[in-house]
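Bug #77: duplicate submission created two jobs. Keeping one. Sequence:
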Amino acid sequence: MRFIPELGGVLPWLVAAAVVAATIALATTPLVRRTAAASGLVDLPDRRRVNTRPVPRAGGLAVAAAFLVVASGFVVLDAAIEAIPAPVFLEPEHLLALLVGGAAAAILGLVDDALQLRARWQLAGQLALAGFAIWLGIGVEAINVPFADRPFVLEGILGVAFTTFWIVGMINSINFIDGLDGLSAGIGAIAAVTLGLISLTTTIGQPYVAVLCFILAGALLGFLRWNFHPAVVFAGTSGTMFLGYVLAVLAVLGSAKVAVALLVLGVPIIDTFWIIVRRLATGRMPFSPDRGHIHHRLLDLGLGHRQAVLLIYGICSLLAVLSLLLSGTGQIYAFLGLFVGLGLVLFVLTRRGLVAEELVAATYDEEAEAAAGRPSDG
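Kept job's structure:
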């Protein structure tokens, strides 16, 4: 892995943009938290959630605001002084897809935070976001595939279908993994930094896109000050929808870095896939809530809240390093290996969880029967 020769001139922009975004998110999150609490946007404890007290949600609006303000400022300033010239492939429409689409994603998420929309309406909004991005020229044109010496070209309806699947899938992966304090924000920051670093290599050579990635990472790190365990505010659907959409678009801008994003975000992506498969196999709706996610299973194994989050951070960081060291096809092979390995782990953890739940249920039934003065059937 070799970085671009002009890295020295780009580095101050990366650091300054990330620090400004982090500062804005750090300062605005308490304001968003107070506003959410006053508006009744609060997650109450229940059997599925891990929070033991009411916590305001919609904190992701601070992340969205920090990213959109700093990224828009960077685009305007750079157009005036051309410190980091925009690459020839990057059209104004692409930036509109990123910035306007990101704002729309946050707003749609806020509507869900306020009204608790049904899954079908959430999906309709996600499809609309994907359609908006595609209309403005965002699209995956080719992907590396195993056992092939060249990328598979995606043209016409096939490219539209894959890009739609990519954006919607990324939004839901981030949403599904947002079950512990700081988990989605931390994973998103790792992914943003990784996409930024890969954009600075000679193979990709996209310093302009790298700055946008580091702005997102900075905004997430500023928010993590308030969102890490014990969190005083949750990202909410406004945060997860914004983060999933922006990561999906950043991974597609220019030379598609889909394989990189697949690997570094392998844990939430694979967790989402197996959760949906398990729900469908048991006759349930794919978006019905439960405690079957990998972070829930880690808690069931006895890990503490922070331990589970840090373990998943560590796995994602290792995958990030792997994605930087491997080529495009190698990244796909690594993702397939992770898919099988993590799938087996999730299967074992799920079986153990189901057995434990059955034992708890049986014990509860016996205690209830004893209290009622009736003998147990066992």
